[in-house]
Amino acid sequence: MLTPDQARERVQDAIARALKAGADAADAMLSGGESLSVSVRLGALEDVGRAEHEELGLRVFTGTRSASISATDLSPASLDTLAQRAVAMAREAPEDEWAGLAPADRLLKGNVPDLDLDDGTLGDPGTLKARALEAEDAARAVAGVTNSEGGGASASRGVWALATSHGFAGAYAVTSHSVSASVLAGDAGAMERDYAHHSARHARLLESAAEVGRRAGERAVARLNPGGVNSGTMPVVLDPRVGSGLLGHLSGAISGSAIARKTSFLLDALGTQIFARGIRIFDDPHRPHGLRSRPFDGEGLPVSPVALVEDGMLETWLLDSAAARQLGLEPTAHASRGIGGAPSVGPSNLYMENGRLPFETLISDIDYGVYITELIGHGVNLITGDYSRGAAGFLIEKGEITRPVSEITVAGTLESMFRELTPANDLEFRYGINVPTLRIEGMTVASS
């Protein structure tokens, strides 16, 4: 695998070749690395995989025209051809007055911050196999588990580099380690499935495989013999692993591209109350070991923690440079970048702060409601805010979780869901987007 220094030199070299080929400006991104994965089922090895990759994406500008191109052959001759083709494509592309590199005076200066995202290890197939077996064994040991879809473990190590023709060059390395299990409970015709997984930047921070497996097994058994619900308007409580989706919808609705196109239900919401008072939502790219931490954004701008919602008030849009120009604003360093194409908007470690109530207190006054642990389908419209999803979980009666439910539908509008939301105090940083348990008043629930 390339070192960060070597990766940075590669993208700088690609920029030089693009300018030599006739580009007025350019940026280049490189992604390289290696990964290992092992899967087991019913105690036997199913698959071992290893992959290596190295790919470079080049974006060039000729005036207000631009084009993007990528390659996996990074030899000097290939990069010369890549640059020439990109410039030829750009000259034939339509003009775009908003496209361009980030403002030069906003670029990250000096050294790239060290966020401790790389533990320097990839592991070996034997270690991963043992981890996957331990997870599956723990899941199958839970009383009521009758079959398995398998256990898995993986590890990867990679490097990212970005350079621009107007003064930025940076690179950093990351590692990722994960373990998972998925099992079934019950007999044929009445089986239920569930899973658990955990990921971490450092292997030492990975949750024990036995704990991950036990949680998968207990979740599957808890779902046995589900029923329906009495249709009506009631409180809905979202488990953190599904509640995080609400912040995903929020970030999509406040992205600069949606605002510029006028395709967001929050179009006129900046500076207004969209959540209850006391709600705080942050984006923290500097979180140590964070699954979405990054030292700079996809355009080379320095990143820093920012409040998106403060005391329920929407404080900012999420802007890359193109959207910022279109709106007459400054970029917020939320450009996200893949190898191909232009940057788009994306948050880093997005999370909602803890509320004040323990989970038990949060549900204690619910006479009849549902606790959702799974959401199904894509019935969310960010233009109108309409929300309708298939769901499964558990019935709440007189402040207690009583029995599993499935094949139900929960519906409302994101605007009212945000406004009627109360967080518990059980926030854990387990995913890229994290929330505590969320209670939402007045949602429409029906059996499918």
Automatic annotation (TrEMBL):
One of its GO terms (cellular component) is cytosol. Transmembrane segments: none annotated. GO terms for biological process: proteolysis. InterPro entries: Metalloprtase-TldD/E_C, Metalloprtase-TldD/E_cen_dom, Metalloprtase-TldD/E_N, PmbA, TldD/PmbA_N, TldD/PmbA_sf. Residues 129-224 form the Metalloprotease TldD/E central domain. Residues 26-90 form the Metalloprotease TldD/E N-terminal domain. This is TldD/PmbA family protein. It comes from Sphingomonas tagetis.
